[in-house]
Every structure is written in structure tokens, then in C-alpha cells.
Amino acid sequence: MEEYSREERLRVWLRGLPGVGNRKFQKLMEFYGSAEEVWSDPSSIEGVRDEAALDAFFSRLAEEHIRILTRVSPDFPPQLQEIADAPEVLFLRGELPRRCFTVVGTRRATLDGRRAAREFSHAIAQAGVAVVSGMAAGIDQCAHEGALAAGKSVAVLGAGVDLPGSMESRELCEQILESGGALLSEYYPGTPPLPGNFPARNRILSALSPGILVVEAGEGSGALITAEYAFEQRRDVFAIPGSIYSPSSVGANRLIAEGAYPALDPGAIPEFYGWSGPSATAKPTADLTEEEQRIVEFLLLEPLSMDELVEKSNFPVSKLNSCLTSLELRGIIVKAPGGIYRAYQ
């Protein structure tokens, strides 16, 4: 059975109380400093403080092979730590791959869109990178299917990881787990896939990856919400251009007009990131100086501008420039449009 610290257990208790969303949780943490302090002060918040019930909850999750990650857990995804409104608690079935890329799109997919989702996802998975998507009908499910034909996939759900939705979704989820991928959700087990869950879920979809691909998206598509989050989180946004007469391509075409990279063939994304095959790994970093290592660690968490790197590292500008140039020449980092630096994952 997984071992959890006292603070981890009480964070799960606190976040699970009725009316305690992410923001209320964060306000309580700011005031009390820890979930232990909230538990110890009966006046802090209404809620049953029942150790036996908490033990039973953790035991049930262990039986169902569901792991819990909180923001104080050592294996909480680092790329989620720094985003706005980061999830305080995550539930995980399977293993979260180290390298991921997100593919999303409309539920009302065209035949061409479905084909593109499968082919682009297949190429990404073939390069040794897991494809993240949301398990919705249409583009999402095609993305999972394309990835599973060549490698791993991750489903970020708008429901509990024990209730993935339709029978088709459940079968696909089982294939994801059998392939070595993962199901991930911030919603507690037993939570049904309610419509209001999905927009908030999309911030996790975008944050897990260095970039996202929008295959097709019409007006009002949830994929456009994911793209908005990606822009805010400084992730790369790619979109597949489509006919100006196709309702399913309106959103993707607009994203390209707003600065998204046009994705013109399935190999474009692996080529952009330098992913060369199933055994592809991050560029060797054993010979980095201490200063270079610090810079890479910052950039693995989030893309940063020169000014932000100066602020975080406290390095002189001349020293920072020297390190960045060296890292770029060795293919360890890249300078993206807008003067934003990011590390290859």
C-alpha cells in the first residue's frame, strides 16, 4: 500500500470537503500554513474530522490501484506546480510518462479531422512521446487510438478516474493502462463526467505538455479553451489549417492567425522538438556547468524570457547570455518566437 505523509492525507481530506475548491483551499493554506493546522482548528472550516473514514478512503483507493498526488508529494508533476490555479490534488491510475504532448479538438470531427488526429498522434507516439488528450468523443478519442497504435497515451478526465464515461471510453481507458499510460483527474473517485468539469480540466491538459495541437475546433469548442490556457502557460500552440468553409476549422484557422504554428504534416511536431524515435531521450546534460544546470532546471518547469531568467537565477546578464548560447548550440534549449526560452523535455 502506498505510503502518504500526514500532510498529504489531510490535504486530500480538506480538498474533498464540500465547497472547498482550489481557490478556497489555497486561501486556507495561506492563512493556516498547512492542512494539519486546519484539521487541528475546529473553527477553521466545517467538516467531519474522522480518521477512520479517511483510512477507509485511502484503503479503497489502494485496492483500486489509484494513487494520490498532492502539491507536497515528491512525484507531483513539476510542470503543473507553477501554473495559475494549479490542481491541489490529483488522482492517478497507471504511470505518468516523463515526456508528453497534448492533442485536442472538437467532438464534431470530420473524417479528415479524425484521420489527422490518428496520424499526428501516431507520429508523436512513434517518437517515444506519450500523447495526452481528454477522452471526449471525436478528435480526443482518435488521438488516443493513434497513439496506442505506436506507444503510450494519457487521458486527463473530467470525471473520477474510476468513472471514465461511456463503454467505448472505458474500453479505451483499459487499453491506455495496458500500454503503460495513465488516467489522470483532479476529480475525486465517484465524480461523474458533469459538463462543468471539462473547462477547468483543460488547464491540466495544456500544462502537462511543452505544447498542444488543435486538430479541428469550431466556434465554442472546448479545444479553444485548452489553447487559451496553453498561450497563458507559455506552451507552444499548433493547429492544423482547414478550409475556410468548414465550420470545424474556424477555431483552428483563427488560432493560426493569432500566432499558432501551422501543423502541415504528421512529422512536423516531432521535428520541431527534435524527437527522433522511440528511444529518444533528453539531450545529455552530464557535462553541464552548475550555472547551466540551474538554467535548464528553470526552463524544464516553464518557458521563460531573458528578464525572467535574470530574476530567477540572479546571474549577471553577460554570464546568462554565455550560458544560453552554449545550451542552444548543444541543442539542450531553444529560443522560441517572442524571445522565450524553453528546454527540450
UniProtKB/TrEMBL annotation:
Top-rank taxon, per record: Bacteria
Alphabetized Pfam families for the sequence: DNA_processg_A, WHD_DprA
GO annotation terms (biological process): DNA-mediated transformation
Gene3D superfamilies: 3.40.50.450, Winged helix-like DNA-binding domain superfamily/Winged helix DNA-binding domain
Domain Smf/DprA SLOG, residue spans: 68-269
InterPro entries listed in its UniProt record: DprA (IPR003488), DprA_WH (IPR041614), DrpA_SLOG (IPR057666), WH-like_DNA-bd_sf (IPR036388), WH_DNA-bd_sf (IPR036390)
Record domain DprA winged helix: where: 280-339
Family of the protein in this entry: Belongs to the DprA/Smf family.
NCBIfam families: dprA
Name the UniProt record assigns to this protein: DNA-protecting protein DprA
